């Protein structure tokens, strides 16, 4: 298992995966992200409430990360 896949599964179970992707990729396009947030305020607020909780930080450890040489 890979920690990111587990995290994505958790986001999908909470119906937050689409909003997470808009947020994540929108960081490189701030104007587009701002427009998207304005048009999807409820979805973004739901995501932000979940995402900012300490228990929802991606738990990266040596045991759950995939490293290739």
What features would you highlight for this structure?
single chain, 69 residues, mainly alpha, 4 helices, 61% helix, globular
Secondary structure topology:
Blueprint: H1 3-13, H2 17-26, H3 30-39, H4 41-51
- Major sheet characteristics: none
SS-derived structural category: mainly alpha
Low-confidence stretches: none
Tally of distinct domains: 1
Measured between the Cα atoms of the first and last residue, the distance is 18 Å
Rg, nearest Å = 14 Å
Number of helical elements: 4
Bin the helical content. 55-70%
Query: What would the average pLDDT be, to the nearest integer?
Result: 93
Following the backbone from N to C, one meets helices and strands in this order, namely HHHH
- Approximately what portion of the residues adopt beta-strand conformation? under 5%
Shape: globular
Count of strand segments = 0
What is the compact description of this entry?
The protein has 69 residues and is mainly alpha-helical. The protein has four helices and no strands.
What would your notes on this structure say?
The protein has 69 residues and is mainly α. It has one domain (3-56). Helices cover 61% and strands 0% of the residues. The protein is built from four helices and no strands. The longest helix is centred in the first third of the chain and has 11 residues, at 3-13. The radius of gyration is 14 Å and the shape is globular. The mean pLDDT is 93.
């Amino acid at each position: 298992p890979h920690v990111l896949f587990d995290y994505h599964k958790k986001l999908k179970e909470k119906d937050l995966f689409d909003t997470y992707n808009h947020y994540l990729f929108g960081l490189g396009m701030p104007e587009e992200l701002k427009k998207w947030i304005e048009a999807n305020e409820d979805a973004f607020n739901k995501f932000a409430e979940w995402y900012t909780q300490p228990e929802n930080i991606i738990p990266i450890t040596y045991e759950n990360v995939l490293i290739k040489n």
